[in-house]
Amino acid sequence: MSTHAATEDVFSGADDVHADRVYLAQGGDWSDIASEQAERGDETIVVNMGPQHPSTHGVLRLILEMDGETVESIRPGIGFLHTGIEKNMEYKTWTQGVTYVTRMDYVAPLFNEAVYCLAVERLLGVTDDIPERASIIRVLVMELNRIASHLVAMGTGGMEIGALTVMTVAFREREMILDFLEGLSGLRMNHAYIRPGGVANDLPEDGLSHLRTVIDWLKKHLPEYATFCNENPIFIGRLSKVGVMDLTAATMLGMSGPPLRATGYDWDLRRTQPYCGYETYEFDTVTWDTNDAYGRFRIRLDECWESLKIVEQCYDRLQRTQGQPVMVDDPKIAWPAQLSLGPDGQGNSNEHIKHIMGESMEALIHHFKIVTEGFKVPVGQVYQAIESPKGELGCHVVSDGGTRPYRVHFRDPGFNHLQSIPAMCEGGMMSDVVVAIASLDPVLGGVDR
Amino acid sequence: MGIEDKLPSGILLTTVEGVFGWLRKASFWPATMGLACCAIEMMAYGTPRYDAGRWGQEVFRASPRQADLMIVSGRVSQKMAPVIRQVYDQMPNPKWVISMGACASSGGMFNNYAIVQGCDHFLPVDMYIPGCPPRPDMLIDAMFKLREKVQHRPIGPNETAAIEDAERAALVAPAKVEMKGLMR
Amino acid sequence: MSETQPEQNLPAEAAAPESQPVFARRAGMWSSGAGDTSGYGGLRRDLAMPGRSEGPFGEPHDSVLGRALEVIPALRDARVLFDRDELTIYVPREQLTDVARQFRDDAFLRFEVCVSVSGVHYPQETGSELHVVYHLLSYTHNRRVRLEVTCPEEDPHVPSVVATYPMVDYHERETWDMFGVIFDGHPSLTRILMPDDWKGHPQRKDYPLGGVDVEYKGAKVPAPDNRRSYS
Questions:
Q1: Pairing state of beta strands B69-73 and B30-31?
Q2: What is the residue range of A188's domain?
Q3: Which of A107, B64, B112, C224 has CA 20 to 30 A from A136's CA?
Q4: Number of domains forming the structure of chain A
């Protein structure tokens, strides 16, 4: 049987080290050699795909035990980006918490803000008082951010398997979206824009036309990804049957978002437990029936189209609700600043300054107290969950009645999904590990918080 | 070790310095040390709109052995700091470090148990970039300023002299804490 | 906060059979540490978490609670709270594994996933300082419930529900790392976010935030946990 193994290496030189066992790979089938070697049970090697790695989606450490090219066991090591955000928020006011929370999942920051603000508003009891325009703007920026996040996922996933063009075009589209978000909130990323009570400021004057430009651009360029990737034989070869998690496995490991919908189960929190008025928008939940990385990729691409549909509906509604307030009416909660460009390039609007300095003492007091001390949130705890591009993003907020959170805990989908890496990758090849992790799309800022 | 150490100071060395500086700055490859949000802006810096390939930097080397520059982009946690130091030690000389963003420069908004308050606690930094996150435009500006520094870096005996001068100056410089009065 | 009370919660100081003890008293405008020179010392706020509620709570919470009491009779003595449209069942730690198993397996409860496990530390609540909060989600019935388990700091053991809900593996490790709650039966309860040899449990209230004072040109801004607090 063992035509390949020998103890004498006929090709070795005089000063080569003597080997215990020699396999001669001449003629015959590699799989024979490999199975013989596996039967022998040679030692496996431990490989560290360390936190600094171009393909691990952030500072994720993977410890693999490899038998040749096969992964025998794999364990993720996380915590390299642990920032202590949750504890830090206990020393800042509720509104300052938005700036902290936004930096957890930094690829889709507006979702973190939205879930936190929805939770705080439930504690305050003002969920029904949020103005309609504020909810529309929230949905708009969340869906734009969903498209941006999926673009990053597809781009970096493509880059990790070598399809570099996908990354360049994905970031080009993302720049368009970031331009709009910059015009709206002032920042390209980590905008502290969604605040408890509404949003920080309304659209600028050219906001709607800018939004139209973005929509048209995306409509024109999103088909490129389908052309690049969907039928690409290399893409299919690398992504099909990789990272297979069927519905049982997905439920056992608490997966949500695209990995769950790739099993064919159409669970989407925007449909089943809607928030921010999602029940009034028309869109489909995208599912796929292969439980693998290819299905997740197709879902992300189709979700970009569904989000674009929602963005167009938001465009129409924003036209209809122009002039309406974007912050809740209650002066004891509403963030007072009316941000607009002053003559020095920054600052509050002149009307607001005139109002608080010249016209209303109460407004001045409210402005001062809310900005310095913050509003007080009644005692209690709340768990709010939304559908972020990665899965179910949950926020558990505990209030002790003061101006600072007592405890904030975020349930990040990436944290959950990383548990399924051993289930997906053990027994497969090392190159599939990269693809499997990319298909889960973990963002280590959210995972480690 | 190289030819530059054997040359005596003088006109010849100055010319060679100019050539070396130009070579180094024209092919200035960063190592991937993308940690958090700034890493996304760093990736945007390599993509078509802010194209870093215009000055030869679109290749982010995964292996530190092939890189000259480490852009520490993002918050450095206590767990990650030894890893970064190890990667830095693996880079061959000459090497430069850019500390991108508020978190890498000073701990940023995260003044707590988990974050090292500035990567200059364990790395020598050549360029600090403020911002949270800094726009890719700011990274381009910092990169150009650093390229100027690279261009003018002395070599051979000049370099040893420059290092000694800098050390002497740093020993007599007043600590920032004692420079009371003006906040600027 | 005594002024904004949902109707179904009992006020902290009323003659109710069981309410949560007051865990903090805020007096005047400056309440923690710094001296009060405002003259507003007469303002006093007693802070207590919402205690218990009596049903009915409305659907779907009534059917959840009703079925839970049917299937796990031992829960009849458990404290139940309905607040902000969420049902919380305070499960004694001895019953946790049984409760979790029933909540997952019973067809009328069928909470397939436990989406989140978080710890909360109430150092003032002596005897039950560490709380572990489990959020369960049911795909079939599209509803959520919360189970809260408490344990004292001197004996921080809570049975692990990993056998029932494998997805809480990392969550329990994080709660151990951050709060020091030992989950009995967890396959590998090790540090997950902090370095492996870290001492202490960072998110407990008696662990300092750990920041450094920011110094620049003679001015010093203290770290966030050392600043004066005005509320």
A1: parallel
A2: 85-333+375-448
A3: A107
A4: 1
Residue pair C168/C162 in contact by the 8 Å Cβ criterion: yes
Please report the domains of chain B, with CATH numbers, ordered by start residue.
29-153 (3.40.50.12280)
In a domain, A69, yes or no: no
Who wins on pLDDT, C54 or A174? A174
Instruction: Give the closest residue to C202 by CA, choosing from C116, C126, C119, C129.
Output: C119
For chain C, positions 68-107, list CB contacts with chain A under 8 A.
83-86, 88
Q: CA nearest C20: which of C125, C90, C119, C118? A: C125
Question: Cα(A176)–Cα(A171) distance, rounded to whole angstroms?
Answer: 9
Task: Label residues B4-22 b or e (16+ Cβ within 10 Å = b).
Answer: beebeeeeebeeebeebbe
Nearest to B83 among A51, A152, A188 (CB): A51
List of residues 6+ apart from C109 with CB closer than 8 A? C64, C67, C68, C71, C102, C103, C138
Length of chain A: 449
CA atoms within 13 A on the CB side of B99: 24
Closest residue in chain A to residue B132, using alpha carbons only: A190
Give the global pTM.
0.88
Query: Chain C closest CA to B173's CA: distance in Å?
Result: 13
Helix H or strand E encompassing A313: helix A293-320
Contact A244, A425 (CB under 8 A): no
Instruction: Write the ipTM.
Output: 0.86
Residue B110 to residue A84, Cβ atoms within 8 A:
yes
Q: Where are the alpha helices (DSSP H) in chain C?
A: 61-71, 96-105, 169-179
- A 60-89: CB under 8 A from B: 79-85, 87-88
pLDDT (0 to 100) of residue C103: 92
Beta strands in A187-329 (DSSP E): 194-195, 198-199
Structural domains for chain C: 1-49 (no CATH), 53-184 (3.30.460.80)
CB pairs under 8 A between A and C: 126
Summarize pLDDT for A93-126 with one digit per residue, the tens: 999 999 999 999 999 999 999 999 999 999 999 9
- Measured on CA atoms in the order A176, A180, A186, A192, is the torsion positive or negative? negative
